[in-house]
Amino acid sequence: MTKRRQFLAALVAKAGAENVLTDPGDCLPYGLDNSGMQGLPVAVVFATSAAQVSHIVHLCRDHQIAIVPRGRGSGTSGGAVVLGDAIVLSSERMNRILEINRADRYCRVEPGVLNGDLQSALARHGFFWPPDPSSADYCTVGGNLAYNSAGPRAVKYGTPRENTLGLSVVIGNGNILECGVRTTKGVVGYDLTRLFVGSEGTLGFITAATLRITPLAKEKRSLRALYTSIEAATQAVTRIMGQPDTPCALEFMDATCVRLLREANPDLLPARTRAILIIDLDGSPAAVDAATDRVARYAKHEDLLRLNTARNQAESQQLWSARKALSPRLREIAPGKLNEDVVVPVSRLPDLIHGLDALAQRHALCIANFGHAGNGNIHVNLLYDPADASQSAAATRCLDDVLKLVLSLGGTLSGEHGVGTQKRDFIHRELGTDVLAAMRDIKYCLDPDNIMNPGKMLPENPA
Amino acid sequence: MTKRRQFLAALVAKAGAENVLTDPGDCLPYGLDNSGMQGLPVAVVFATSAAQVSHIVHLCRDHQIAIVPRGRGSGTSGGAVVLGDAIVLSSERMNRILEINRADRYCRVEPGVLNGDLQSALARHGFFWPPDPSSADYCTVGGNLAYNSAGPRAVKYGTPRENTLGLSVVIGNGNILECGVRTTKGVVGYDLTRLFVGSEGTLGFITAATLRITPLAKEKRSLRALYTSIEAATQAVTRIMGQPDTPCALEFMDATCVRLLREANPDLLPARTRAILIIDLDGSPAAVDAATDRVARYAKHEDLLRLNTARNQAESQQLWSARKALSPRLREIAPGKLNEDVVVPVSRLPDLIHGLDALAQRHALCIANFGHAGNGNIHVNLLYDPADASQSAAATRCLDDVLKLVLSLGGTLSGEHGVGTQKRDFIHRELGTDVLAAMRDIKYCLDPDNIMNPGKMLPENPA
After folding, report:
1. pLDDT tens readout for residues B435-456
2. Are B262 and B269 in contact (CB under 8 A)?
3. Quick one: how far is CA A226 from the chain centroid?
4. In degrees, to the nearest 5, what angle opens at C-alpha B153 toward C-alphas B152 and B159?
5. Is there a contact between A435 and B178 if contact means CB atoms under 8 Å apart?
6. Does the pLDDT value for residue A462 go beyond 70?
7. Residue among B151, B342, B140, B341 at smallest CA distance from B250
8. pLDDT digits (tens, 9 = 90+) for A45-57
9. Which of A190, A306, B180, B447 is placed for a possible disulfide with B193 were both Cys, Cβ 3.0 to 4.6 Å?
């Protein structure tokens, strides 16, 4: 028996035959994510329990086979892509909601629960879990935790980091760690919970999570403000974030987004629109009406073209329609897209948007910018035709300039998409040598054989 | 020249003579904290910059002399007490507020800034930093970060963990790490920021912090509910925490606290009072009045004796007077006090309080319980006379039972006071062998010579 066949036989024995796929045709769909990259796993294993995962990790250590933890592969940064000899460890069969505890404001879930399914179950109890990535209907809570994936609501309610109380994790040495607490306070020992949140599967595999849940607000209002200048929109963002009525969403679209949307549907927006803000507010009925009026005043500017308020869900969907139409439209017009996910301090948004416009001109590319303005988190989309070699080269050069611009503004290279394989070679610019060395040391002490998602997040060790 | 004198000469050279104390009379006050323990440091060094601290760490590594990081020594768990051969590294001269950035909702501070001074400076801009320990007037932000110290406001606004964006830390190997971001989102690399928050100086010395700040609410209302039973109070807590109007303080006092207060001042509270809740709500004027009415309804119970609402600051101070009188009163009646700081899920508060009453009876001790009920964080005070050997022994046995009770209820041993030397020998009960091993591994990789606050937090390595 070859070593590979020995490994697969042991894997079936440890994981259960019903939990292992080895046929390449079955395995191939598990080797990709939404980055467009793909690899072929040696096998796909469906995790069923912390004990089973621990057995698998020990086996993979013995055989020096890597493990790629996987939710549903909706990530865009290549974190779930198979590189080299690796099995995929999928959470899709660990998809139970274990407990919803309203009085104690927590729930416990397995990692494969879909974000949207969890939100539906919580809503029946009058609660929600704040992280709301746009892929909520088909991404897993485990994946959200691995990337610290957020979404529009983070501006008021925080990211997974602020909404996770405890984790069960099988780390790279095979140990099962029960980290954190079931309470909103707890200071016993180091904060391992948040060390694992955002670690992209490079330290261990999450087998259960205790999540902090929040009561649903009674009412929600939406505002949409159309401006004839970027300055007007970004100044409004700064004013709104400087006062106590924090919106539960504060979304931005730039002039390029407006132009692309109008090309498809000229009636969607007035011709003079150069920037859009969509602002959601929630709270009790009395509070939210007063807050909406106050925020509407902060949104005022001489370049304000139109301000619409939605008082019910149908009107709100109408106001959000331009934002929802955007991603399909971007996919339609450009076969190639470098989708960055940068963050700058809110007050630097005007500098970021103007800087990006200048880079678009310099590199003769179309750059469409939109995103979570209240967090300063902008999705920067470099659109190009990958069949055109000079455009591809221009996009690569432009990306380099975009990242320089972001760091020069005191920002960070990723707000919620993560590093994965796509940004791995850039993060040293942000973190520096000593911070990277400390991260590598921590990786080594929890995963001594480097079997947990190797080649992701941390750059290659310098020779 | 002896080795010790060589070390001191080098220390003066590295730190600057004006920043070093060596006279034992000068050094002694820096060797204690609010735990009652005390040690004599080899020297006291005043930190002035990250570079200076890095030089000192390298020197201490060379000489195998420990470093005890110190704010103002207001901690109660012995974390800042000198054990063995150690210098104290004090943050008290690094006390500048470096930047207050209202538009971007952050401030940058040196570690020695007093919490109260920071709050005053922020209030002038209409902002605050949520952590509000009762020692706010004389504790440092660096100390708050080291212990993840919170206070009443945490129930709505979170602890330092949720309110810190980035840190500069000199770790035990001498490297200077710039961790985190200036934005509310950021997912590049492992979350070192929160690994340092709550690490009690055992990984490094914080030289600067970027803190997330929050706009001050326009209005605040206080409610005080007096109950004739514990059940009525704890059921009200559960109902209040299950709905969206989260209070900005939800404080509890038990029947023993009431009795001790009434012994000193019979007019302070009605004789039948067995439990007290104090509830603060904040928000915009319209919102806070409506929320106060709603929460008042949730506080209703057939055992509700009296419900008072304060509509201005003077009335609010009146409602809080019993709570403020409590700590001095406890100090007055019992020379010995074991001051625990446990947390249980909110729904288990009745079981905790009844269990503590049973333990008080069994061990013939007085136990007074009060604290931050909205977080399930109760300060359990075992009162005894240390001159009485049998009482002291009973207190020690009782403490053991208290910790067992807390863990049996799914709780944690400390919510905000930290582990230090006082709870170090107990945390293995909560964390287990594998979690402690992972924490030790992380400590070793950032502080390979174990010079950063050794003997604190983590139990001795098993032989």
Report:
1. 999 999 999 999 999 999 999 9
2. yes
3. 27
4. 100
5. yes
6. no
7. B151
8. 999 999 999 999 9
9. B180
Chain A: closest CA distance from residue B315 (Å): 24
pTM above 0.90, yes or no: yes
- State residue A311's pLDDT score: 82
| DSSP E strand boundaries for A110-229 | 127-128, 164-171, 176-180, 204-212, 214-215, 219-227
Look at residue A452 and give its three-state secondary structure: strand
Are B185 and A411 within 8 A, CB to CB?
no
Check: CB of residue B5 under 8 Å from CB of residue B29.
no
Task: Say whether residue A336 is in contact with chain B using an 8 A CB cutoff.
Answer: no
DSSP code for A419? -
Rounded-to-integer distance, Cα B303 and Cα B293, Å = 19
Among A191-195, A263-267, A378-382, B356-360, the least confident range: A263-267
Question: Which of A286, A418, A423 is closest, CB to CB, to B287?
Answer: A286
DSSP state of A344: -
Structure tokens at A398: 């432009």
Q: Give the 3-state secondary structure of residue A220.
A: strand
Cα separation, A229 vs B6, whole angstroms = 66
Give how far Cα B39 sits from Cα of A208, B19, B60, Å: 43, 20, 18
Helix (H, G, I), strand (E, B) or coil at A369: strand
- The CA distance from A443 to B446, in Å, is 12
The minimum CA-CA distance between B294 and chain A, rounded to whole Å, is 11
> Do residues A88 and A29 lie in contact, with contact meaning Cβ atoms separated by under 8 Å?
no
Contacts with B343 from chain A: Cβ below 8 Å: 181, 183, 185-186
User: What is the band of B97 on the pLDDT scale with cuts at 50, 70, 90?
Assistant: very high
| Assigned token pair, A440 | 């590598």
Between CA B126 and CA B337 the distance in angstroms is 39
Interface confidence, given as ipTM, is 0.96
> Residue B446: which of A183, A411, A438 has the nearest Cβ?
A438
**For chain A, how big is the Rg over CA atoms in Å?**
23
What is the pLDDT confidence band of residue A335, given thresholds at 50, 70 and 90? Answer: confident
Please state, in angstroms and rounded to a whole number, the distance separating the CA atoms of residues A6 and A62: 12
Coil, helix or strand at residue B21: strand
User: Cβ neighbours of residue B334 under 8 Å, at least 6 residues apart?
Assistant: B366, B383, B384, B385
Question: Cβ contact (<8 Å) for A434 and B177?
Answer: yes
